[in-house]
Amino acid sequence: MPDHDENSKEASLEYNVGRRIHERRLARSLTIEQLGNHVGLTKGQISKIENGQVSIPISTLSRIADALRTPVSDLFEMGRNPPYEKLSKRMREERLDAINTGIKHYEIMFSATRLPPGFEILIVRLVDENDFRRYRFPGSGVVYMTSGSMDYICAEDTVFLREGDCLVFDGNQEHGPTAIYDSPADFILIINTLRA
Prior knowledge:
Blueprint: H1 9-27, H2 32-39, H3 43-50, H4 58-67, H5 89-101, E1 106-108, E2 119-126, E3 140-154, E4 157-162, E5 166-170, E6 175-192
Antiparallel strand pairs: 1-2, 2-6, 3-4, 3-5, 3-6
Helix pairs in contact: 2-3
């Protein structure tokens, strides 16, 4: 295992790149095994990379960055944290496409390190009733429809939402989609689990 002494430039680079990969993997809600499957590596190999125990060939680093949907350069940005994170329309569409190929119907839009504690911003795509779930959490939420239309239940009330509509709701009450009229129904979900 490399010595992570700050005086050791190579070890520091390996360690910091590994930490960035780890952070990005968690932000994308991927397990070590899932990332390994995406890039053709074992869980053990991914673990060693994330812990800075091995040097990473550029080709492997490129495959990891692709799987994490981040530029390779982002994995080298140690100590530099700009005060913003942009999600372009193209990136949003890529994330929606990724949802279609998986079993889940949501994708985290921004890394947790960019948001205040208790906040999550998700992009959601619903295609059919099999995607419907009911939720309840402490705090509040916001649904902003970006395309399609659907019914969304909040406690005992059903609210019709179409593109451009915005709904604020109490997360303590049971809530979730109940019907889709124009498929797919795409929306941004903002969750705040903190109480003032």
